[in-house]
Automatic annotation (TrEMBL), chain A:
The protein, known as: Sarcosine oxidase subunit gamma family protein
Ranges that cross the membrane: none
Protein species of origin: Actinomycetospora lemnae
Record InterPro entries: SoxG, TrmE/GcvT-like
Signal peptide range: none
TrEMBL record, chain B:
Pfam families xref list: SoxD
Taxonomic superkingdom: Bacteria
Source organism: Actinomycetospora lemnae
Protein name per UniProt: Sarcosine oxidase subunit delta
Length: 204, 86
């Protein structure tokens, strides 16, 4: 029993690990127009906090950057990103801390200001779309994804096909899709299928 | 499909929202003292106006917030800017 407890064989795997090869074929088939990549899991907490109180400033000091104040925007902090999900809700990620440490670190500050942070590292998984990302996503998403209305620094919770997603704009040709693990395969297959529309056609 | 203006996210497609029925239905102050008929009126009876109707909506596929909006039941148009309330 003691042996079994010491044997920590549970390592996180990406929910789309078995589709890694399929996603990689998209770059070749679209002649480099679109590239789909899986992103490594990160520590993430859901932060609930009164936006009018002293909490946001205190959390900002603890993570090293201001929290995004406008609806549907995100900001980078030294080890990750802060995304505003609602009036009193943020998603804070970190690539440096473990999930346990990140939850403890943020919750300790939030709790002192009447808020709370809960570990949601396993709640979403991440896909990165580079190249003609906006064109590709427009096949299944009703948002106006043109750079003028969805510029870098914006994020949005919306629907991609039938699945709820959190879209994050990094650049004109660089979008990130955060999706529930159980919907991730559906979204991946939807994107691979839509990418077929971007395959260059031979001129007759 | 029409757009509904979420007070937090801005205009989004109707499919992202779910309907929560008539707004401003107050929970009875002393539920235990109601007769069955009074309780039934609270639980089941709703206005059904032809015209402006204050309703609860949830942006369930977006920010997941509830808000109150006034919709004209004849045209399905939202007639006033929605307000966010808890
Ligand atoms: Zn919303």
């Amino acid at each position: 029993m003691a042996d079994r407890m010491a044997d920590r064989t549970l390592t996180p795997t990406h929910p789309l690990a078995d589709r890694r090869g399929l996603l990689a074929t998209v770059a070749d088939e679209t002649a480099g127009a679109v590239r789909l990549e899986l992103e490594a899991p990160v520590a993430a907490v859901d932060l609930r906090l009164d936006p009018r109180g002293t909490g946001p400033a205190a959390v900002a000091a603890a993570i090293g950057a201001a929290l995004p104040s406008a609806p549907d925007t995100w900001t980078a902090h030294p080890t990750g990103a802060a995304l505003r999900l609602g009036p009193d809700e943020w998603l804070l990620t970190s690539t440096a801390a473990s999930a346990e440490d990140w939850e403890f670190h943020v919750d300790e500050v939030a709790a002192a200001h009447g808020g709370m942070a809960v570990d949601v590292s396993a709640q979403r998984t991440s896909l990165r779309v580079r190249g003609a990302a906006r064109e590709l996503l427009s096949f299944g998403c009703a948002l106006d994804l043109r750079p003028a209305s969805f510029p870098a620094g914006r994020c949005a919770q919306t629907l991609l096909g039938q699945s709820g997603v959190l879209l994050v704009a990094h650049d004109v040709d660089d979008l990130q899709i955060l999706v529930r693990p159980s919907f991730a395969a559906y979204v991946a297959d939807l994107l691979v299928d839509a990418a077929g529309e971007l395959v260059p056609q031979p001129v007759p | 499909m029409q757009l509904i203006a979420c007070p937090w996210c801005g205009p989004r497609e109707e499919i992202e929202f779910s309907y929560g029925g008539q707004a401003h239905v107050a929970y009875p102050e002393h539920p235990a003292s109601l007769t069955d008929e009074q309780w039934a009126h609270f639980v089941f009876f709703r206005d059904n106006p032809k015209g402006p109707f204050a309703e609860r909506w949830s942006h369930s596929a977006g920010c997941r917030r509830w808000f109150t909006a006034v919709r004209d039941t004849r045209t399905h148009r939202f007639v006033s800017p929605p307000e966010m309330t808890s």
